[in-house]
Amino acid sequence: WNLDDFEIGAPLGRGKFGRVYLAREKTTHYMVALKTLYKVELMKGRVEKQVMREIEIQTHLRHPHILQLLTYFHDHKRIYLVLEFAARGELYKELKRQPNERFNEHLSAKYTYQVADALEYCHRNNVIHRDIKPENLLLTYEGNVKLADFGWSVHAPSSKRNTLCGTLDYLPPEMVSGETYDIFVDHWCLGILCYEFLVGKPPFLSDSQQETYVKIKAANIQWPEQITPGAKDLISRLIKRKSWERISMAAVKKHFWIVKYKD
Ligand SMILES: CC(C)CCNC(=O)Cn1cc(-c2ccc3c(-c4nc5ccccc5[nH]4)n[nH]c3c2)cn1
Q1: Burial class (CB in 10 A: 0-12, 13-18, 19+), 79
Q2: Which of 112, 113, 154 is nearest to 130 (CA)?
Q3: Which of the residue ranges 148-157, 176-185, 242-251 would you say has the lowest mean pLDDT?
Q4: Do 167 and 209 contact (CB within 8 A), yes or no?
Q5: Quick check: 244 and 96 in contact, CB under 8 A?
Q6: Would the CB of 129 count as within 6 Å of ligand 1?
Q7: Residue ranges in the chain assigned as alpha helix (H)
Q8: Using DSSP, how many helices (H) and how many strands (E) does the chain show?
Q9: Which of 45, 190, 209 has its CA nearest to residue 115?
Q10: What contacts 173, CB < 8 A, 6 or more positions away?
Q11: Nearest-angstrom CA–CA distance, 148 and 155
Q12: In sequence order, what are the beta bridge partners of 179?
């Protein structure tokens, strides 16, 4: 494959090390998201090994709720990633578009189930995603979730400290205190995600990083009145300070609140 095989369309977004464009494969008219990474940028950021690891991880992951890296190629200046196109874009924007900027119980349970399904598959392949949040989820034309941006995925177990950039709201206590962690960081994040779907903002949101840290380590959640007992039960079983107490992805998928509302 090379660039001449595609017609380039509108920009879809800016990643850390490049841009993403809508593109169409010339013979089949298949729509894709074409991500360009500048080699110089990767060298400067000393992340070329990480990107090759991500490419390695992504080419081996194949799941209906994980955004597929279809293929990749490069020229002298850039690496091109041919990614699945998700026709309804970022789930984050869909959340903000909702009345009261939150999803109803049906959408919250449906999306939580689909992310749990994707994470169960990742964990079975010994991959921790570590960066589950609305900004990393995309929606297909049919309204199903695609987990994207394996920018921080590593093979479990790992104690790699990732430089804290962006929101701390999703960090579990063990990552905040820099201990080694395991796949259960994703279980914590799924609990935060489910809460944000239902409430419109994450449970430990605060004015200062320091305050967010304190709330995370205490793991005490305020429950707005619209949260039903079933949702509270599921979220409480995921947002546990002791990582081994967090329920499994299989248990999430079978949880009575998920089963009741996901379809
Ligand atoms: C393999 C490694 C080196 C990179 C792994 N990470 C990614 O490639 C993560 N990533 C996915 C994207 C991405 C961004 C946007 C889209 C879209 C998309 N569809 C849209 C519809 C409307 C508005 C915006 C849209 N963006 N579809 N597929 C995408 C894929 C960008 N970076």
Answers
A1: buried
A2: 154
A3: 148-157
A4: no
A5: no
A6: no
A7: 39-44, 48-60, 91-97, 105-124, 173-176, 184-199, 209-218, 229-238, 249-254, 256-261
A8: 10, 9
A9: 190
A10: 216, 217, 219, 241
A11: 17
A12: none
- Using CA atoms, how far residue 37 sits from 30, 49, 76, 79, 157, in Å, is 22, 13, 12, 5, 28
Q: Which residues pair with 69 in a beta bridge?
A: 83
Closest CA to 170 of 220, 205, 146: 205
Residue with tokens 């578009």: 97
- Answer whether 237's CB lies under 8 Å from 193's CB: no
Please indicate whether residue 169, judged by its CB atom, sits closer than 6 Å to ligand 1. Answer: no
Query: What separation in Å is there between the alpha carbon of 219 and the centre of ligand 1?
Result: 32
Asked whether 33 and 85 are in contact (CB, 8 A), the reply is: yes
131 catalytic per annotation: yes
**Contact assessment for residue 43 and residue 67, using Cβ atoms and an 8 Å cutoff:** no
Q: Could you give the ipTM of this predicted complex?
A: 0.95
**What are the tens digits of pLDDT across the range 184-233?**
999 999 999 999 999 999 999 999 999 999 999 999 899 999 999 999 99
Atom of ligand 1 nearest to the CA of 88: 21
